[in-house]
Design goal:
By secondary structure, the chain is an alpha/beta fold. The protein has two domains: 155 residues, Medium-chain alcohol dehydrogenases, catalytic domain (Quinone Oxidoreductase, Chain A, domain 1, Alpha-Beta Complex); 141 residues, Alpha-Beta Complex (Quinone Oxidoreductase, Chain A, domain 1). It has eleven helices and 15 strands. The strands form three sheets. Strands 3, 4, 5, 6, 7, 14 and 15 form a seven-stranded mixed β-sheet that branches. Strands 10-9-8-11-12-13 form a six-stranded parallel β-sheet, with helices on both faces. The mean pLDDT is 97.
Amino acid sequence: MRAAWYEEIGTAAAVLRHGEMADPQPGPGEVRVRLRASGINPSDVKTRAGARSPIAFPRVIPHSDGAGEIDAVGEGVSPARIGTRVWVWNAAWRRAFGTCAELVCLPEVQAVALPHCTSFEAGACLGIPASTACHAVFADGDVSGQTVLVTGGAGAVGHYAIQLARWGGARVIATVSGPEKARVAEAAGAHAVINYREGDVAAAILAANDGRAIDRVVEVEFGGNLSVSAAVLGEGGVIAAYGSMGDAEPKLPFYPLMFRHATVRALLVYLLSRQQRADTVARLTAALEAGALQHAITARFDLADAVAAHEAVESGNLIGNAVITIA
């Protein structure tokens, strides 16, 4: 099979290689997926760069997200799964070989049926961006009748969060950093969009909700936005945070949050429990089958261009998702 891999951490140009490797074979309880698309996420490029830890295996094929067709199964897996369209999750999480290849073998539960109305490229965005958004929105139950604030509404996760919260019956307010991103958030279905670089952001959020407090915040930058979140969150409200790059060790305003009976939920999509994963998969499947999701795929690359793909994601200039398409 063709694949892209690295054997040491470093810059994409220095360590990523593209070539042929032996085809993997599925073990007991596993399926083999012939991949048609591989999703590239910030976590993938950070892992390759060594931002989180030393290299964990002698050779690493990156990327946790992908989509394709099952072409072989291991012992204990029904042959009926062969030929089915699937999307995969956690392919490279604590594993050596991810989806930046023509083939990947992984436990069959990690290969989820992909509705025929959904492209393989879109399927390659479901494992991290869409699943993070789905869990952030619905981790505490239905949001019908609530107001959900989505920070970074034009980002890969934020874009899905707006759509999922609206599909779930919530009023959605999004914050963005400029006009272009505002258009993305509006197209995703946000009822109100606020530029967080202008004026009193907390006041603008409350005004956009007719003076009422917010029920839930889907938060991309917990520390940097904490003062605003604490100011707009209502009693019993939840901050569901999946990032805090700007301030990794924020000072927590405990009593203001306590007197709102607030919940701070720090979430990592790789570590969802079996039930949380099942709930997330079920909701995403329902949303896809209902035609409720747009997929903001703004950059496409060939497998041979993995270096350029990683550099594009690292640049921070992409609005939306990047995928590698595999012929």
